[in-house]
Amino acid sequence: MSAHCCDHHAEPPKPDAGKGYRLALWVVLAVNAAMFLVEIGAGFLAGSAALQADSLDFLGDAANYGISLFVIGMALQIRARAALVKTASMLVFGIWVLGVALWHAMTGTVPQAQTMGIVGATALLANAASFGILWRFRDGDSNMRSAWICTRNDVLGNLAVLLAALGVFGTGTAWPDIAVAAIMALLAIQGAATLLPQALAELRSTAARRHSQLRT
């Protein structure tokens, strides 16, 4: 499976695919930037680790989509390096969210379940739209695939936030919120682990091709 992916993505994206991908990225970038502003404020007001984690995810994704826009049409090697940068950001995000979850566990802050539910539902709609927009690019090179993986994780994270809101409302404790924040962190780390091998394989492929050309 991985060998097939490497062979399939050895060439740059077709011009028409690049144009459609560029438009898709501009749309989802705007959506993610707007939702970051909404969720970061709501997360602090509601005292929710899950909402704060989700807001940071929106911010990271907006930056990642910006990187993807910048490298469209460039050589596969540059796009693969951009994917490595985004992989690192996903890993940093996961570690940061685990720290936020631990802090809330230590302080015992009980978030506002109603605010979590309303904002979580809004974020789910925004990410579901982004997921649909990026769906046809899910099998592209590592740079394209990383954008889709980020959006996939966001949809799963939003569903988890809604479950956390129900859990906080039902139990009156912060543990559902903390558990969801930890799950979101693990999703980010898993996404990084999924993307890293493909990006490295693409870098090796371009290096081997360049070495072969130099020898001939």
Task: Produce a short descriptive summary.
The chain is mostly helical and 216 residues long.
Characteristics:
about 220 residues, mainly alpha, Alpha-lytic protease prodomain-like, elongated, disordered N terminus
Topology:
Elements: H1 2-8, H2 15-46, H3 49-71, H4 76-107, H5 113-134, H6 142-171, H7 175-215
Written overview of the protein:
This protein has 216 residues and is mostly helical. The chain has one domain (2-211): Up-down Bundle (Alpha-lytic protease prodomain-like). Helix content is 87%, strand content 0%. The chain has seven helices and no strands. It has helices spanning 2-8, 15-46, 49-71, 76-107, 113-134, 142-171, 175-215. α2 packs antiparallel against α3, α3 (49-71) runs antiparallel to α4 (76-107) and α6 runs antiparallel to α7. Mean pLDDT is 78; it is low at 1-16.
**How large is the share of residues in beta strands?**
under 5%
Mean pLDDT: 78
Low-confidence stretches: 1-16
Per DSSP E runs of 2 or more residues, the count of β-strands stands at 0
In CATH's first tier, which class applies?
Mainly Alpha
Alpha carbon gyration radius: 19 Å
Report the total helices: 7
CATH fold category name: Alpha-lytic protease prodomain-like
Helix content: over 70%
Structural class: mainly alpha
Tell me the overall shape. Answer: elongated
Major sheet? none
Q: What is the count of structural domains?
A: 1
Succession of helices and strands: HHHHHHH
The CATH architecture is: Up-down Bundle
Distance between the termini: 30 Å
